[in-house]
Amino acid sequence: MKKNQTWIIPGIFFLAAVSANLLGCVTGNLALEHGAKGALLPLLSLTGITYLAARSFDMRTASILILAQLFGWAGDSLLMGEPFAMFASGLGAFLLGHVCYISIFSRSLKGMSAGGWVITVIVKVCILVALVLAIGIHGALLPPMFIYGAALLTIIWCGLRGILKKDRKGLAPKSVWVLIMLGGLLFLFSDGLIAMRTFGMGDFPQRGFVIMATYILAQVLLGTAGCRLAIYAKK
User: pLDDT, tens digit, for every residue of 20-36?
Assistant: First the structure.
């Protein structure tokens, strides 16, 4: 196997962990589901590290990407606990991970006018209020989930801005920003389903499978985009 293809080995282990986790979701085997879930982000991170190691890349971007995935792993681990404190801690870990992602992706926001920022904030608030009302989020979780939702919308906006921006000097290709936007949307969808479950919204068959499938795909898309940005930043 060529040096630049060694990432395939941890990638295979990652796919095995994904398969085991989703099988656990479908069959209701919590031991299999939780056991595989804890391995997802470490294996995804290892795949990305191995991929970058054979190429020239920006260390700062790669380091922040790995940190984002480590926070994601912490969030996965904490959310497997039942007590409210565990759920809140998991939410906080994921929020920190999103902040790391934003610090990488926010280069697409450079050059926005003051009016553009105002419109962006207004649109975000309107979307968040609509989601809060639709899901019925209330109580002590309302403020942190509002902030969490704002972070996810910022990731989506970074991707959309990167796609639409006309002045592309120093900006990665549009395909990278498509990955970021789709990853953010899938993350929002997955977490929206978790919020609906938390606040007793209508259930549907295999909700856990859908949550994990969309969440894993979101992490893969954001991780892929982060690796490509790390390589592009070195050019």
Answer: 999 999 999 999 999 99
